[in-house]
Design a protein that fits this description.
Shape: globular
Order of helices and strands: HEHEHEHEHHEHEEHHEEHH
Largest sheet: 7 strands, parallel
Structural class: alpha/beta
Strand content: 15-25%
Distance between the termini: 23 Å
Radius of gyration: 19 Å
Number of strands: 9
Length: 320
Amino acid sequence: MTAGHWGGKPYYSLDAFLKNTYGEKLYKIAVDAGFTCPNRDGTLGHEGCLFCSAGGSGDYAVKASEHLSVADQITAGTDLFHHKRTGQRFIVYFQAYTNTYGPLPHLRTLYTEALLEPSAAGISIATRPDCISKEIVAMLVGLKETFPDKFVWIELGLQTIHEQTADLIKRGYPLSVYDSCVTLLQQADIPVVTHIILGLPGETPAHVLSTIDHLNQIGTWGIKLQLLHVLRKTGLARLYTEGHYSPLSQDTYTELVIDCLEHLSPEIVIHRLTGDGPKSLLLAPLWSLDKRNVLNTIHHTMKLRSSYQGRLTERLFHEP
């Protein structure tokens, strides 16, 4: 992949990938299929991960309580972008909580319902690597065969490769589980999008870059770089209000994102460079509410530095 395919950006964005592959912009419709999570149902815990709100990362999803079926949620979601002038198709994003955490027949029914939507180009399923089994992967392969013109992606919440941090944020599984899950999905030709969080308590830029190096080595297809938000009624909020955690400044975050991009393989698709913290829940950092400014600052800084995705990775591979 060359920079000429990046749509004018200094990194390989999801938007560029979609336009290169499908010839148009695809919109995401986030749905809440009514799942829970082993970090909330008592299997591993009851409060969720340290940073996770009561919405289970699905605060922007169409709510199952308001629209019971996935099809109804998709209809409600399409109403939000029907006025857009570009792109007519969408990705159904199973976002809230852990979206493979249920009986296999139920999972198959939900995913099939989404894939049957004529304007759905595919589905993206957010989950945990400890909630992916060989049986689930076999079912996903079957769906790909049933819908050969549509895609199935899996999004895995890794956050960090460092076990001390993982314990602190109550992730609930070791790195080896993530690695094995990625291998299993790769063998089934199912693309993996890995979520990592920047600004986790106790982590330095060196910690983050070692996580990036690991993702290069394991060969994740996509990545989401997520700013750590302090949301109300979370364990992280308690640390923050008690003075035990300080969120990243915008300048520090900008530098860290650019470092990550420069170390990432240019083949990896960038699905996110920041994140959206619901205004009603966000305690800090408040500068993140202006998402356009955050992205413009990253792009402008990269332009000033002649920076681009893979700059340092290419140097590592090519220098003697």
